[in-house]
Amino acid sequence: MKTEMVRARVSSQLKHESEEILAELGMSMSDAIRIFLSQVKLRHEFPVELKVPNQETLKAMQESVTDDRYDSSDDLFNDVLGSDCAKN
């Protein structure tokens, strides 16, 4: 039986953006919090790995993303792996 309430203060922007994403996944904020707490109970640990990015990762995050477009997944794999790998 659900009788307890959990409250947390967050920015309105964080709440709004999170609710939009969760709605796309078909769940409410309450659903997400219940899933999170269930995972804490199940794992007996924080269910998300928290890391501070190292310098190499930070540099990669700041680099521009490619504008390359592909007509098919085969074209993408041919470009990334080379045409010989895509045939296997």
From TrEMBL:
Family from the record: Belongs to the RelB/DinJ antitoxin family.
Pfam families recorded: RelB
A biological process from GO: regulation of DNA-templated transcription
UniProt GO molecular function: cis-regulatory region sequence-specific DNA binding; toxic substance binding
Protein name: DNA damage-inducible protein
Keywords for the protein's UniProt record, in alphabetical order: Toxin-antitoxin system
Organism: Vibrio inusitatus NBRC 102082
InterPro entries in alphabetical order: Arc_rbn_hlx_hlx (IPR013321), DinJ (IPR026262), RelB/DinJ (IPR007337)
